[in-house]
Amino acid sequence: MTAILGISAFYHDAAAALVVDGEVVAALQEERFTRKKNDDEFPIHAIRECLAAASLAAEDLDHVGFYDKPYLKFDRLLETHLACAPRGFAAFREAMPVWLRKKLWLPREMRKGLGGGYRKPFVFTTHHEAHAAGAFFPSPFEEAAILTFDGVGEWSTATLGSGRGNRIALSHALRFPHSLGLLYSAFTTYTGFKVNSDEYKVMGLAPYGEPRFVDAILEHLMDLKPDGSFRLDLSYFDYAAGLRMTSEKFHRLFGGPPREVDAPITQREKDLAASVQRVTEEVVLRAARHLHARTGLRNLCLSGGVALNCVANGRVLREGPFDDLWIQPAAGDAGSAVGVALFVWHQLLEKERRPGRRDDQSVSLLGTAFDDDAIQDFLDTTRAAYTKIDDEAALLDRASQLLADGKVLGWFQGRMEFGPRALGARSILGDPRVPDMQSQINQKVKFREGFRPFAPAVLAERASEHFAFEAGRESPHMLLVCPVKGEQRLPAVTHVDGSARIQTVDARHGRFRRLLEAFDRRTGCPVLVNTSFNLSWEPIVRTPAEAYETFMSSDIDALCMGSFLLTKDAQPASLAAAPASRLETLLGDLLASPCCGVAFEWGQAQLGCGACGRRFAIEEGIPRLFWPHDSHGQGEDVTEQVKAFYEETPFPNYQDHESLRSLIDKSRRGGYAHDLHRAVSFNRTVLEVGCGTGQLSNFLGVGCRRVVGTDLCLNSLRLGETFRSEHALERTAFLQMNLFRPSFLPESFDVVLCNGVLHHTSDPRGGFEGLVPLLKPGGTIVIGLYNRWGRAMTDLRRVLFRLTGGRLRRLDPYLRDSRLSEDKERAWFADQYRHPHESKHTTSEVLGWFRACGIEFVRAVPSVTLENAAQAGEGLFDPEPAGTAFERRLAEWAQVSSGNREGGFFLMIGRKPLAGVEPGSGNTSA
Q: Do the beta carbons of residue 894 and residue 835 sit within 8 Å?
């Protein structure tokens, strides 16, 4: 037995592939383990999984190959920056640390990554040799022409060559800085997308535009030759030595600066995408025709990142001179791990190659698999609601019925895909006949741009019935675009230009094939919408836990994992109610009259107290349950002052949030909301007191939780409710309430959040004591307050602002952030420096509140001791020691400077003991 490990790492999309006696046994990307999209670190986890698939250890490996020659790449880096000196010094300085630490010492890094078990030499191919090997050796062709295009390897950016038998040879190359991949990436970043990640978005956007900039690109940016070679005018670009892709000259040519990431997409961006796409297709077609003329070969193999441009691939197949083509399914750097391993086996060890009718990459189903026992162990641990259906025919019948009913189905079966496409193992599926299925999945499942198309998976033998695709031809890896026949029949998979990125499904796809057959029997349609099982900012799911997390974090209706079926309507937090009765279904078992503390009687647009009969209106979808406390209405009443302040000076509204995706993006970037999402389990009931405009409540309600946001200020609540209604967040509700007279039954909530309210009341401790009874036993409460010491700098600035009329407001660290909108600046300044009332507290004081109410201390943010802060990194609800009073005081003194930007704000988190369990004292020492 000969075992060969191929590795790609340190540049983009790290991966590992294991070849045993010429067979690709396993191939995985590191991102699937670390959950960092396109992770480029050394693929430790992927290597372990590859070895485990063959029951091998590192010392059992005969050869380890790397897909790149680092010294040649370093040569290019030095030469480029020296040629551009001194302008390129900033980029050079940024690049050097990782080169000096890791990339120049790859054998050392690889031995370390292999745990010291591998002691034999390493093999280094060139970057494009690995691409070419990954394209040809797994292909079904005895001989074929080879074409590779990407950003850049060592020096090459494109290569021409051929493969015959067990050998490949590259004959021609295009060299850096002239690169089709970098040209496309320049337009990617210019149109407001992320380079080396979002190029496929530009391809998807292109059909919405007109290619009106093609002449400008060919006249100014590139000198394109008949053979597909070209030279770029580098004065329009900045990637050779700068820290950005495009220059000011580029911006002037195309009518202005790049689109900001969150800015609306205009016709200019659509036309730019259409133009660079058209040019890319022309370059690839010319190169393919030239290569065919040179080699005379009938078949073509493609790899490199540009080979993921399936529109260009489709044109090469339809309009090019080759009879057939095969594209590496993981055509980017990940696929080169397969390439280098097979290069060692065939070309260096001279092992015979026996190509078959189909490829040797097992339709790229080369990753992790989980059996029913592993899936059930997870589901039982999570206490998820599921049904196990052991009979496969019954399981597929139920799944196909859900799809025929217009439901969105998460599909988790067998071995995970290798490469960027979902191929029926980790997929989200839908009925392609449903007109709004595309927008439904884009907006409420994937949370991504609405223009993005979805691919059809079709029974291989039926493909030519629905698509302009030659009968008998295969596209199992979803890498070809072709026209749709009778596009009105399949609206969910038909792009705006009448095309679709097709996947043909045959017996090698296992249970996914049988699901398509079941759907065809039920509906007469052999096609399903097939998109990757992930939220748009995450890698494809690998484990049952990740599949469940994605299912519960989005509007996927059902999840089929192995033999297990989960439906969203069976989850405790789901609502099975008509819109008219949504509030009663959501709140009926939670609400209590604030005047008498008893359950309500629900009526038409009003609630009636079950004791005294008093009526409370429901207006604009918001129950008006405000009830005054004893001192309300008096001149010094803080509640009335604060209520009036926020009515006059509301929090920033949703003007920056035109979609669920933008709300989620902001919440994830904010840190606290993201940490809450991870800490608050699904199917929990959550109360946010003082929710403001409800952005946090709406964010938490996107997942399968029941969330109630309350506030005094109707202006803010209306904004939250409007957003909730527009985006159909059915598990979230807003109501007006006085926290001193809460409108809920005792023990109604798993989590109570009171992030920034108590310090704006006349009695913070009393407010806290009134919220504790609302917690279920075992529930968690989070309160936010101002720290007495951390507030010192804010108090000093307040005096200065008062003396100068606010003219020195840039002294505030938060207001120095140039990215803030005018509304956010105004709201922050008013809240921090003009609020009618605030109180300040110490952590020891709040721990006293916890003890008095029987609440166990969990943790604080920032930590209550300096030692805890040094060991930070746990989950938001994971416990930490409370330390001594002296240790807490030291941490508070540090807040004078470290808490300056946040205005001395801190969180204290506690847990209510389970019934019959005495509160612990270990975490609440004085």
A: no
